[in-house]
Structures are given as structure tokens and as C-alpha cells.
Amino acid sequence: MSTELDSDAALMLRVKQGDWSAFTELVDKYKQPVMNLVYRMLHDAAEAEDLSQVVFLQVYKSAERYQVSSKFSTWLFTIARNLCLNEIRRRSRHPADSIDAAHPDHDDQPLQQYEDKKTFSPPESLLHGELEEKIEQALAELPENQRTAILLCRGDELSYEDIAKVLGCSLSATKSLIHRGRETLKEKLKPYLRSGCWPKAT
Amino acid sequence: MNKDPFFEDLREKGWRRKLTPDEEERLAEWLAEHPDEQSEWVAESNLNELLEALPNVPVPSNFTARVVQAAQHEEALAQRKKPSLFDFTISRWTRWLPKAALAAVLLGSGLSSYLYMQAARRAEWAKSLTTVSQLPSVANPEVLNDFDAIAALSSTPPADVELLKVMQ
Q1: Where in chain A do CATH 1.10.1740.10 domains reside?
Q2: Disulfide check for A101: which of A111, A123, B9, B22 has CB 3.0–4.6 Å away?
Q3: A32-74 pLDDT, tens per residue?
């Protein structure tokens, strides 16, 4: 892990000096985990894509303020979480227009058209239809801090201490958030967890 | 939360990664001694698997290119907004103008007050001098030479009552 810290920090030092290839490398490395987190916080694929781009733009604009002593991924996910929270607050002040409203010029078409969001069928997916929907729904219904803690826990980018820094709380509070979130998930997904019925990896 | 530190430690490790074979073996031994915790561990393990199997969100193939392009655009805008040497010089000096103006006003009012006080004091002195110059002149001091003798003449000694009685 310390080798990874050094390599990310080295890349950021180069970004500070205007090295675009270093910035490209960082974006390529972290675009997937950032998109995963942002989508599951906003539940909107198009917005997740836009906001994920803003996350990296913010990283670039704030490069001068980056301290080598702090882990890059912790800093990155803190930016991502804060931008998501800003967006969620903005949405709560300006609720979305009705999706049933008709288009003023074309009565047979809705005012707003949304692409089919169910594009999650990558080859590596082990889950199908209903179960995946249940998990995504159960995650979406968790309080934001529990959901974020569980999602950050998934990958191996961040330690529990790093997750605590992103959330701005203590290590014990972070583990408590993860535990409570998981207890809620276990309760909602009980039938599946008991039976263990889903396609397993071979 | 289960209070057993051994179970909790493995549970927390399992949240982030698969247990190592050694950890799995120790867990199996522990669960054999604590069969009540078996179902709890199965639920934890199954949830770990479900969360692990959550699919990655599709990322557009041109995502990185668009981010870099946007960052370069921001950089170009920032460069254009930088002030010219002329602007920099002017702004450097105009920053100090309000402070210099305030200092000038304070200095001016202080100097005016001082000069006014000086003039007022001189006027007072002039007035005093005028008053003194109008006083009658003092007599020649030589007339005061016999002052004591003259003063003694005007004061008569008290009557000798005893002598007057004798003389009657």
C-alpha cells in the first residue's frame, strides 16, 4: 500500500508541475471507483458521469493544495463525496420536473426522455435482474453516511482509517456505520442471504 | 455487535477482502466451539459476496479524454485572465491610494489644528502684553529712600497714662 501511496503522490507532484500525462494516468486509474461511488450516491447514470468529470477537474484545479503527506485516494474520495453531497442538497432545494409532463410541441412524447438506465450487464457480473435490483435498492435506501462507508469499504483503495477521514468521523464511528448499514442490508436481503441462491463464481 | 474480539476482527477483515486460508481455518475452529454464531457468519459471508459482485458502472471510453480536455480549457482560461504588466503596476499602486489619501487627511487636519493653536496662543500673549502696557508707570524709586522714617512719623506712640495722672 505504501508503494501505491508513493506512486500516486509522485504523479500528483508531476500534475502540480503541469504534467498532463501524469494527470491522465491518475484519471485512468481512479475513474471506475469514482464512477461507482458517485452513481450509487446519486442514482443517476448521466449525472454520475458529469459529476465524476467534475471530481477530476476539481482535483486538477486543487493540485496546488494537495499535500504529499496525505494519501491521494483519500483526498480524491473526499472531493467526490463532498461534490455528491452538494448535488444532493441542491436537488432537495430544486426538485426535478415531473417526468409525466407532455412535450409542448409533441403531445405523444413526454417532456423529458430518459435513456434506459439498466445498462449494467458487464461480463463480470455474477448477479442477474431481480437480485441486483434488490441490492441496489437496499443500498439506495440506507442513510448516506452508512451507504458511503459500505461502498468505500468494497475496494482495497482505502483502509478503515482512510474511510474515517473521508467521512470526517472517528475509526470506531466508521466501523459502527458500516456495521449498522450491513445489518439493515442483511434484514432487507434476508431471503437471498439465507438461501445463498444466486449464480456463484466457478 | 458480537463482542468477541476474534470474531469481530475477522468480520471486519471480511468486509474488505477475502479471508486468508489461515484465517479461514482459525474461524472454522472458532465456529465449531461457537455453533450459535454459525448463521451470523453465513449471513455476513453471503452479504460480502453480494456486495463484491455488484457490477461496475459503465464508464464511457472517452471519459479520460474529456476530463483532460476540460482541464486544459480551464488552464487556458486562467492564463487569459492573468493581468498584464501594465495592469499589475497600476493595480499595485492603486491599492495604496486610499491609505495614502487617509494619511494625508489625518496629517493635514493635525497640522491645521497645531497651527491654529499656535495662533490662538500668540493672540493671548498679545492681549496680555496690551493690558500690561496700559498700566500707570511706577514712581521713581528714590522717593522711597526715607520711607521708613516717614512711616515712623505717622505712627504716634500710645499715651502714657501713668505720667498724665502724676501731672494732674
Answers
A1: 1-95
A2: A111
A3: 999 999 999 998 999 999 999 999 999 999 998 888 888 999 9
ipTM above 0.85, yes or no: no
The owner of cell 494527470 is A23
Please tell me if residue A45 touches chain B, with a CB cutoff of 8 Å: yes
Cell of A135: 441490492
Domain A1-95: give its CATH code: 1.10.1740.10
Residues 71-100 of A with CB under 8 A from B: none
Task: Check: CB of residue A109 under 8 Å from CB of residue A103.
Answer: yes
| Domain residue limits, chain B | 5-52
Between chains, do A154 and B54 touch, taking CB under 8 Å as contact?
yes
Q: For residue A200, list chain B residues with Cβ-Cβ distance below 8 A.
A: 49
Tell me the per-residue pLDDT of A86-105, one tens digit each, with 9 for 90 and over.
999 998 887 665 444 444 55
- Chain A residues whose CB is inside 8 A of the B50 CB are 127, 131, 135, 189, 192-193, 198
Closest CA to A54 of A73, A34, A32, A68: A34
- Give yes or no for a contact between A92 and A163, defined as CB atoms under 8 angstroms apart: no
Domain A127-202 = CATH 1.10.10.10: yes
